[in-house]
Design a protein that fits this description.
Elements: H1 6-19, E1 42-46, E2 49-55, E3 60-66, E4 71-80, E5 85-88, E6 95-101, E7 107-114, E8 119-123, E9 129-133, E10 145-148, E11 152-156, E12 159-170, E13 173-186, E14 189-200, E15 205-217, E16 223-228, E17 238-242, E18 248-252, E19 262-267
Antiparallel strand pairs: 1-2, 1-10, 2-3, 3-4, 4-5, 4-6, 5-8, 6-7, 8-9, 11-12, 11-19, 12-13, 13-14, 14-15, 15-16, 15-17, 17-18, 18-19
Length: 268
């Protein structure tokens, strides 16, 4: 993953603490709406811990990752309509694993801690995911916030886009959300857009409440421009949305730089 330049990161850390709690945006022009997802089908996050729930054909595949991925739970779940909950199915895979990593950062060993793991997943009144770990109670007090399926690396022509989850201490305020870095390399130099984004589960989009654009020509100094929600008539500088084919669209409300560009996932 590309590292942010020191200058860009410093600007965004100051602004993120001010803008992270911005009101819901006016909906900009967007690609054709995607079919409505199952309400559980998403990535759910609590800091860097997360739950991935994939709605499959007749069941839900669930992975819970805690402590930087060193503790994992894998469940095969079915819907319990009476409880309005996902319940682990004894006929599937339900187990807790301990994960070890080698010095190169690759997975080296996964030791099964418990093959008798079972769980119940529900949504609370705020739409957060609750995890009841019936074997070890690891989910006690945890609330996971819906964050969609945006993380990954995308490409379109000469543009490359990396979207990743980040947690940073911005001006004394803890910020948890998506960062998006767009790079365009041309014969004149490198242009980079860095976005701090919030996820809206109502329309399954990322909205950038801060945008920093840096243009570095091959000869000359870098030019940095900062946009936030208050700059362009109250609109968010940009948003990211999937179309019905699963491709990602970049809607740039400042310069319309993303018009007509469709990004395909190159590395999830």
């Amino acid at each position: 993953m590309k590292k942010l330049t020191a200058a860009l990161l410093a600007v965004m850390m100051i602004l993120a603490g001010v803008s992270a709690l911005a009101e819901a945006p006016e909906t900009p022009a967007a690609p054709e709406a995607v079919p409505e997802r199952d309400p559980f089908d998403s990535v759910w996050r609590d800091g860097f811990d997360y739950v991935e729930i994939n709605c499959m054909d007749g069941y839900w595949a669930v992975v819970v990752s805690l402590e930087s991925g060193t503790r994992l739970w894998e469940y095969t779940c079915i819907m319990n309509d009476a409880q309005d909950a996902l319940v682990s199915d004894s006929t599937g895979t339900n187990r807790e694993l301990a994960v070890r990593w080698n010095e190169e950062g690759s997975m080296e060993e996964r030791e099964v801690v418990s093959a008798e793991a079972s769980a119940i997943f529900t949504l609370d009144e705020d739409g957060c995911l609750l995890w009841k770990d019936e074997a070890g109670d690891a989910g006690a007090g945890r609330r996971f916030v819906k964050s969609g399926w945006f993380e990954g690396t995308y490409a379109c022509d000469d543009y490359s886009l990396s979207i990743f989850w980040d947690t940073e201490d911005a001006d004394g305020t803890m910020f948890s959300g998506y960062k998006a870095q767009m790079d365009l390399e041309s014969e004149n130099g490198l242009t980079t857009w860095i976005y701090s984004c919030s996820y809206d589960p109502q329309d399954d989009r990322l909205y950038a409440f801060i945008a920093v654009k840096e243009t570095q020509e091959k000869e000359g100094e870098a030019i940095t421009t900062v946009y936030d929600k208050t700059v362009e008539n109250g609109e968010y500088p940009a948003c990211f949305a999937f179309d019905g084919e699963g491709n990602l669209h970049w809607i740039d409300n400042v310069e319309q730089a993303g018009e007509g560009k469709t990004f395909m996932l190159s590395n999830g």
